[in-house]
Structure formats: structure tokens, C-alpha cells
Amino acid sequence: MPFQTVSISMPFRYFSAISLAAFTVTTLVTVFLLAAPAQSRVAWELRQTITPDASPLDVAASIDGSRIFVLTKGGKVQIFDPNGELIASIPVSPKMERITAIGLQQVGIPEKIFLSGKEAGIVQELTLEFAVPIDISGAPVLGPADAPVKIVEFSDFLCPHCATVKSLTEEIQRLYPQQVKVVFKNFPLSRDGLSIPAALAAMAAHRQGKFWEFHARLFKAQRELSPEKIRVIAQDLQLDLTRFDQDIKSQELAKYLEKDIRDGQMAGVRGTPTIFINGMLLKQRDLATMQLMVNQALQRNQSR
């Protein structure tokens, strides 16, 4: 049978409709295939809602997310922690409209925020320094337990500079007998030598109510310190030597010392002596600076 060619004629409008439908289906499939992977790469949830006390104009955050800064209408910067709890509220110019946070706060290095506003025509820089929380439970304390100003000293009994702090804190306590208490935290810089044995001996003396006497004798004998000298000090202070020896070797005191070191590391301590006044780093170890910071701490306490 000879091959025959058969031609089929179709109205143009009918062909166009079919082509359009095919194009539409193809396009929808393509869009779906492109969109679906993008959706699958995003998982989200509403963690919290922060409610400032006025309408928010702008928001910024620390690089590590530890603080959230909200600029509100009427001239205020409210600072929140990651859980949405208000840390502080700072009055600023009501003409400010934008806020930017710069830098990760480190101990002794203030964090910066910048404020700007078209109407104001200026940019303002604010430096912020935050108090460091330090656990002092079980630590030796000198001064009234309810004193509003807490001076925390991280120290090493083998550190020559640490030996000079005693006269400074004694003078501050003489000037502020009811307002200041001094707290000692061990921060031995070396795992070798006598730094750790001296710290353990001082804490063993603390268990017998003789920490500050032992503390003073250790620093006084710093240049001639030895295991034998440490024991002589214990004898001179009439400590129960059997209990003293047991405490020095106990796991409990070893764990306490490790906690002191860990507390120091969390507070950003890198060397000794490091001193905090109500959580604020003392940057200059002199009486005038310490007095200034004590007065500032008292003022903040009164304004609460």
C-alpha cells in the first residue's frame, strides 16, 4: 500500500489555547520546583516579643547577641538581655531616629552605640560598660556582709603586684567602713610552683576562720615562700594542723579552687591582680580611682 500523507488542519485559536495552557502548566511546575527548595531551607520560629515602654524607632544588637538595644520614641535607649528582660534605660535626644551597635564587649573595653537623626543633624556616640556578675558564695569576705559596695579581688599569692593591693583595700575600708566589703578570689597564674599550694593553704585556713591572717602572712613571706614556710605560718596562727593537712588534700577544696579560676575566666580575668567594684573593672590601681568608683557605685545604689 503506498504511503500517504495526511494533513490535519486546526483552527489557530484552538492551537493557541492549547499552547497557552501547556505554557501555563510548565511555568507553574517550574515556579514550584524553584520555590520548594528555598522554602525547605528555612526553619523559623517566633522566640519572643520585646515590649519597650514607648514605640520603637530602631533596634540593634551586640555581635554576640547578649544585648538588644531599642531606640524608642521620645528619646530613650532601652537595653534588653536575650530573654527580653530590661537591663537599663538611657535617656537620649528625642530627635534621634537610628541606632547602631559596634563591637563585642570585653572586660575593660566599653561597647559603643551610635545614634543619628535627620532632624538633629548629628551623630552621637555612647560608650557602655556593663557590670560583670561574679559568684562570691563561700569566698572570704572582709567588712560588713550587707555593705552596698563589693570589691572583688582575683589574686595570686606569688604575684608581686598582688601584694600591694592589701594596703589599697585597707585604706578604702578605713574611708568607707560601713559601705565597702572586700572579697578574695583565687586566680593562680601557674599550675606549677607554689601558687596552687598557697591558695589551697589559705582556703584551709579560711575553714578555721583565719583566712585574712594567713593571707597577710603569705604575702609578707612571698619572696621566701616554700612548703615549709606555709606550714610554719599555719603553726604560728595556731591552726589545727591535722585538719589543715586534710583540708589541703581534699577534693572539696580542689573543686572550690577550680571554681574560683572558672569564675575569673568567665569575668574576663587574664592576669592578677584584677579588681572589680560592684562588677565594674578597676582600670587603675590607685586610691583616687578606687574612691571615684566606690562613690559612683554608691550613687547608683541610691538611685535604684
Keywords:
Glutaredoxin; 37% helix; Thrombin, subunit H; disordered N terminus; 8 helices; 4-stranded antiparallel β-sheet; 2 domains; single chain; elongated
Roughly what is the average pLDDT, rounded to an integer? 87
Rg over C-alpha atoms, rounded to the nearest angstrom: 33 Å
Q: Can you tell me the overall shape?
A: elongated
Identify low-pLDDT runs: 1-33
What is the topology, as strand order, of the major beta sheet? Answer: 8-10-9-11-12
Q: Could you please say which CATH topology of the largest domain applies here?
A: Glutaredoxin
Tally of strands: 12
CATH architecture of the largest domain: 3-Layer(aba) Sandwich
What profile does the largest beta sheet have? 5 strands, mixed
Question: Which H/E pattern describes the elements?
Answer: HEEEEEEEEEHEHHHHHEEH
The total number of structural domains is: 2
Question: Mind telling me the CATH superfamily name of the largest domain?
Answer: Glutaredoxin
Helical/strand content category: alpha+beta
The top-level CATH class of the largest domain is: Alpha Beta
Distance between the termini: 108 Å
Estimated share of beta-strand residues = 15-25%
Determine the number of helices (DSSP H or I, runs of at least 4 residues): 8
Percent of residues in helices: 25-40%
Quaternary organisation of the protein chains: single chain
